[in-house]
Each structure stands twice: as structure tokens, then as C-alpha cells.
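Aim 2 progress update. The chain analyzed this quarter is reproduced below.
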Amino acid sequence: MHFANINDVNLHYQVIGAPEGKPTIVFANSLGTDFRIWRDVIVRLVGDYSIVTYDKRGHGLSDLGESQTMTDHVVDLAGLMDHLGIQSAIICGVSVGGLIAQGLYATRPDLVGALILCNTGMKIGTDELWNMRIEMVETKGISEIADGVLARWFTKGYREDNPADVAGYANMLTRTPAKGYTGTSAAIRDTDFTEQAAEIKVPTICIAGDQDGATPPELVKAMAKTIPNAFYEEIKDCGHIPSIECGQYLTDVMTAFMAKLTRE
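Predicted C-alpha cells:
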């Protein structure tokens, strides 16, 4: 395990190296998860890319921090990349991780060579939705919302066929610090990168799950239309976290996109 103190927050991260000259991919996670959600993708990329994963503040083994605003999350990732000496990486973010990736490009474009935006949008959800969820977690705990969240994370077929896995991911969700969850929920609520998305100039692919109940395909497609020259890919029979439910297909989409980068 590796830890670094960034912006007075101890961040848990992992670096998996590759031969010199290989591109670096930085993965940013969704709300209520840690970097283990990328395992099935990472094992298929090892050796071909240098890989960085990390737990954002308030999640996994990272510190909670005094706040969890979008600015906090973006500055944390920039600080971690500076700490590791990484520039012009491929930033792959899912859900709030995709918002963090967009925020990173808006403030530190030198760190971003390309964007892979999975199951995310320029703005996710409504104030009412996030306020209700925050209130529920503050009054009754994350376990109270777990079933609904898992139903958005995974398709019905996946939940029925993989009950042990779903129970494990429920543990990941419910063991997230409540303040980390609610703080990051507020960060999502308060973020709208519509104007910034129109200014993205690096190669970008926007990936949706056709059964995603949190960031439906229409939301992802609207983002792809806003970002100049962005690609759009929709994964069949997939919920909100494709790295878990459709790891092989997601990896294939990513590698095809990244292969185009090397040819340009």
C-alpha cells in the first residue's frame, strides 16, 4: 500500500509500472467505492500501460478531510499527480470520478492528455435528489439507501447471478464514512461542467451503460455531443459501474480508443 499527504489529506494510492515510454492511465472512482472497482480492467492492461489508482478523500483508506467539495477532489488528484511526477496522462473517471476528470482538465490541462468518461455527465442529478439522499444518510445511515444504490450500480441480471459479489460491493458502499459520502454527494449536486465541457480539446470518449439508473445513456450522450469531437460508446446490458459488470468489454473499448491516440 502507498500513501501520500496531499493538501493535508492522506491519500491511499497504487502505482503499477510499465516499460518506459508507455502511457499512464489514472483511474478515478465513483461515489461510495474505492479503487478496487477497477481490478478487472487493470489486470487486462498491466504491462501495456503505467497505471495509477487512488481513493479520493472520504473513501477507502484515504482520510476524510475537512470537506469534500469538487474543488477539493480536483486539487487532490492534481496534487497526487504532481507528487508522482505525472503529466499528460489518460484520465479515466466513472460517475463522480468523471466529474473530477473534467474539473482536472478545466484547471490543470497540462496533466490531461486524453479523457475516458464513464457513466458520468456534465451535471449529474438534481438538487432535490441529492438533498434527499444526504438527509437520508445523515439521519439513517448509508445502509438505508444501499438497496436503491445497488439497483442503479448493477443490472437485475447481474444482481441475480452474482449475489456474493453484490453483497461484497454492498459492504464497500456501507463502510464508506457517512461524511465522505454526504460531502461528495453535495459536491456532485453543486457541480455543473457544461460550459467547461465545450472547451475540452483533448481526445475524449464518453461511455454509457444502457441500463444505468444513475447516469442514463441520454445524459452521457449529451455530454459527448457537447465535447468537441468526442466519441460515444454504449455498453449493452450494463449498469452504472462497467468496470465491475462488463470489465472485458470496457477494457476493449478503452484499448481501441487508446490505440487511436498512438496513431494520431
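The chain is about 45% helix and 20% strand. The first strand starts at residue 2 and ends at 6. These observations will guide the mutagenesis experiments scheduled for the next reporting period.
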